[in-house]
Design a protein that fits this description.
Order of helices and strands: HEHEEEHEEHHEHHH
Number of strands: 7
Largest sheet: 7 strands, mixed
Number of helices: 8
Strand content: 15-25%
Structural class: alpha/beta
Radius of gyration: 18 Å
Length: 277
């Protein structure tokens, strides 16, 4: 029986996870130094090429292999398409991540594409938004549900996504697996934890995914000076990251207060049952 289970796992196709990453844009939030918030600078952008940016971090993470790295289609606001695969351990399924780097100054297009995919326009097993919560700034776009499409499960790694994305996803019929209730930084160690958990439990097990994300985030954000999602990690370890003293974000005061009071975790050390995922 055990041999049969192992053969089944080996024969199983990879779990497909599609990740939408709108690059950080200093015109919308304080991303840090100019290069970190340049909305089309892949190599230096906070959410893509910085220390905990999606491509830089995951391409160096143990067990992850870059399968392809291609520019987006001609004339598209998708700047790069990155495919990675996570090598499964015994008893795990392979996971394939497709990361789409959107120009930060085209975040509205990224949002529309993500919501359209969530409504059934994608065949991925799980969709992830990792970036600024654009719905904090604007009304939800009108998205047509493709005829006969099956809405996809989603994870939204953005500030207060339950409040802003939750109602929109409900309208689209897309089941939310993980949303957030407070302010956060959508850094790539969360994607690493997500992929590992998907490999072990599948893409739609909310308890396992929420617990894994909490445990990945807690060491990085438990220090009093932890950054908000508009901050920049300036040291070699995430738990030593320093909050910037000012921000152009309209919600900057509340944003900083939530982080410095460790509102997200509410305890030390944080426990998954008391988090605000």
């Amino acid at each position: 029986m055990l041999t049969l289970v192992m053969l089944t796992l080996l024969a199983a196709p990879p779990v497909e996870v599609e990740v939408f990453v709108p690059l950080c844009d200093n015109a919308l939030i304080e991303c840090g130094r100019a290069a970190a918030g340049a909305p089309r600078a892949l190599e230096t952008n906070l959410y893509w090429g910085a220390m905990y940016g999606a491509e830089r971090y995951l391409s160096r993470a143990p067990g992850f292999k870059v399968m392809s790295r291609e520019p987006g289609p001609e004339g598209s606001v998708v700047l790069r398409e990155l495919i990675l695969e996570r090598t499964p351990a015994k008893g795990e399924r392979p996971v394939r991540l497709k990361l789409l780097a959107y120009a930060g100054d085209a975040i509205d297009t990224a949002l529309e594409d993500f919501l359209r995919a969530a409504a059934g326009g994608s065949r991925a097993d799980l969709l992830v938004w990792a970036g600024h919560d654009r719905l904090m700034d604007r009304e939800p776009p009108q998205v047509k549900v493709p005829p006969g499409a099956t809405p996809r499960p989603v994870v939204v790694l953005a500030c207060m996504s339950e409040q802003y994305f939750g109602p929109v996803l409900k309208t689209l019929g897309s089941p939310p697996i993980v949303l957030t209730r407070t302010l956060m930084a959508p850094e790539a160690y969360l994607l690493e934890a997500l992929a590992t958990t998907v490999a072990r439990h599948g893409p739609t097990e909310p308890t396992a995914l929420r617990t894994a994300l909490v445990e990945a985030y807690a060491p990085a954000r438990s220090s009093p000076g932890a950054l908000d999602s508009g901050g920049r990690a300036e040291n070699s370890q995430p738990d030593r990251a320093r909050r910037r003293s000012s921000s152009s974000h309209p919600r900057a005061t509340a944003h900083r207060a939530a982080v410095t009071t460790t509102d997200w975790w509410r305890s030390s050390p944080p426990r998954p049952r008391r988090t605000t995922w």
